[in-house]
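Narrative of accomplishments. A recurring question from our advisory board has been how the design workflow behaves on a single, concrete structure rather than in aggregate. To address it, we present the structure tokens for one chain from the evaluation set, followed by the sequence designed for it. No filtering or post-editing was applied between the two.
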């Protein structure tokens, strides 16, 4: 099972995401035992000292909310780590993403909360994020109702569980894994410890997005090596 650290960007810094209320997000180093800085390059360096992660997930929250962007910082990171893959969600539509020129180590994420009408991503190398909050699907319902539009890799993002220490939405993830055996599902939101990771692996989840459990020390190097 693939472990993917998450970097949430807001106001020029990496922030600690919790509960989906972005107005309350604060610089991550205030809550982290891993990092003493919230600069993006410093956080990535600390993550790589913890474990040689091959893939990172970046959410540009300002861009998603239509309040500027972190394009320059992200481009610098892509250049600095050409042998790492970065999944980037900046709220862009498929139309914008499909016309953009991007480095080979950048994989855009299409998040349903930011989209209008659904389009087919089946024959693309893009990542789809099915976004949920308070048990409600975000974005056009067609994304949820039309699995034939989905690409191979699908993130299941439960925003209100992010940073909540409440555990993942095992029920939703288990059903998706059972109903769509041809997809790679990546869990996002609520993972607390090795027990959650073990259960997610058992139900067929292919990958997990992590932030809080890395920053608070719940998952250390020895634990990560088991997956």
């Amino acid at each position: 099972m693939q472990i993917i650290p998450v970097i949430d960007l807001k106001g020029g810094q990496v922030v600690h995401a919790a509960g989906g209320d972005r107005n309350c997000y604060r610089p991550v180093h205030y809550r982290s035992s891993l990092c003493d800085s919230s600069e993006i390059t410093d956080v990535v360096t600390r993550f790589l000292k913890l474990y040689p992660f091959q893939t990172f997930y970046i959410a540009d929250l300002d861009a998603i909310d239509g309040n500027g962007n972190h394009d320059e910082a992200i481009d610098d990171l892509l250049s600095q780590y050409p042998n790492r893959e970065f999944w980037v969600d900046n709220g862009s539509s498929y139309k914008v993403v499909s016309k953009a020129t991007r480095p080979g180590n950048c994989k855009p994420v299409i998040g349903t909360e930011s989209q209008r009408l659904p389009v087919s991503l089946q024959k693309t190398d893009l990542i789809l994020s099915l976004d949920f909050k308070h048990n409600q699907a975000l974005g056009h319902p067609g994304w949820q109702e039309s699995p034939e539009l989905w690409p191979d890799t699908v993130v299941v993002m439960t925003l209100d569980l992010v940073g909540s220490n409440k555990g993942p939405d095992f029920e939703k993830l288990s059903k998706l894994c059972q109903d769509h055996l041809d997809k790679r599902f990546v869990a996002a939101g609520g993972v607390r410890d090795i027990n959650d990771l073990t259960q997610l692996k058992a139900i067929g989840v292919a990958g997990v997005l992590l932030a809080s459990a890395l920053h608070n020390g719940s998952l250390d190097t020895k634990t990560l090596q088991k997956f």
